[in-house]
Amino acid sequence: MKRLLSTFILAFGLMAFISAQEVANGPLISLDKTTHDYGTITQGGNGACEFTVTNTGSEPLIISRCKGSCGCTVPVCDKDPIMPGATSAISVKYDTKRIGPINKSVTITSNSSNEPTKVIRIKGRVEAADLGAPSGVPVKQPATGAPTNN
């Protein structure tokens, strides 16, 4: 009985291994990073970043859709097929007019065998820009709810 059970487990494991190898023969998406950290940036600053996509598979990778989690996060993906071994860029632009923490995502939809839906993230913090005072001396905008000296 133990011998029959061992043979069954070995056969099942071999079938699982073979089917896993078949999946790996299609287009495969690989990214240079899954999160971009802006750190602290100034309001109105450059909110652009880029993710590099590599097709590590054996067939062309086609990115059919890139969607930001809100209107303040705008991704741009190349719709041309990415050949095996080739790379492409996904550009993401965050609207830095909004003050506060950044924690947004971009969902990539493709024909990838390993991850047909891949989520990448951007994070950081936008701080208030200096506002010029009439005297010409720059001043910081007060934090929300903070008292002002008038």
Could you explain how this protein is built, in words?
The protein is mainly β. The protein has a domain at 27-130: Sandwich (Immunoglobulin-like), CATH 2.60.40.10. The protein is built from one helix and ten strands; from the N terminus they run αββββββββββ. A four-stranded antiparallel sheet has the order 1-3-6-5, with no helix packed on it. Strands 2-8-7-4 form a four-stranded mixed sheet, with no helix packed on it. β7 and β8 (117-127) form a beta hairpin. The model is unreliable at 19-23 (pLDDT under 50).
Describe the secondary-structure layout.
Layout (H helix, E strand, L loop, with lengths): L1 H22 L5 E3 L3 E8 L5 E8 L7 E6 L4 E5 L9 E8 L5 E11 L6 E11 L2 E3 L5 E3 L10
Parallel strand pairs: 2-8
Antiparallel strand pairs: 1-3, 3-6, 4-7, 5-6, 7-8, 9-10
Task: Please supply descriptive tags for the structure shown above.
single chain, 150 residues, mainly beta, Immunoglobulin-like, 4-stranded antiparallel β-sheet, 1 helix, 10 strands, elongated
A few lines on this structure:
Helix content is about 15%, strand content about 45%.
